[in-house]
Amino acid sequence: MIPTMQITIxxxxxxxxxxxxxxxxxxxxxxxxxxxxxxxxxxxSGSGKSSLLYLIGALDQPSAxxxxxxxxxxxxxxxxxxxxxxxxxxxFIFQSFNLMSNLTALDNVLIPEMPKGVSxxxxxxxxxxxxxxxxxxxMTHRPSHxxxxxxxxxxxxxxxxxxxxxxxxxxxxxxxxSETGKEVFSYLRLLAxxxxxxxxxxxxxxxxxxxxxxVYRIRDGKLLDQTQxxxxx
Length: 233
Known about the structure:
The protein has helices at about 50-55, 80-90, 105-110, 120-130, 150-160, 180-195, and strands at about 5-20, 20-35, 40, 65-70, 70-75, 90-95, 165-170, 200, 215-220, 220-230. It is α/β, with parallel strands linked by helices. The longest helix is centred in the C-terminal third of the chain and has 18 residues, at about 180-195.
């Protein structure tokens, strides 16, 4: 079994400047994401949801406060350690899919492996992932010949090829219709459960939540509350 991941956010602030004006995105936010859990971050546009996700993925640094992964502060990591964390431990899934138009679905899944060379074993794993997300007959198709839902499933397979301990998804169904979105989430849950990964999803749509999911509501850069989904509406 893949080791799971505990995440602790301690009084995190994040600001950036637009000209001479300071824009405060996160304002002393604190919370925890339990190892192996499925979590949703919800809130209005501009509330800091995506900024928090990028901080957790070590794509950015807090202006103040700490983010700890398994008890160790990200701020204490070297650049090489942060790069290794992103490359080995985190599966990123974005709304825009980020597929290479000149590559097949299979090769898009294998992109993270290409710098070090794609082994026959990894190619087989990529093929199996595409089969598990219902794309067995679409492996040789390029993105322009895939639907939006199929492209997102390719992106999910790519994120999961490394067997990540942490899956970060930023509005993964934002450009999909509701039925395709449900399909994408069903695959994401299935594969996440098989990998025992900690999953954090930023979304505006609460219809994909299931009992036992953790929900973090953010407004104006602060955590309003954390609740557990008890039932599906």
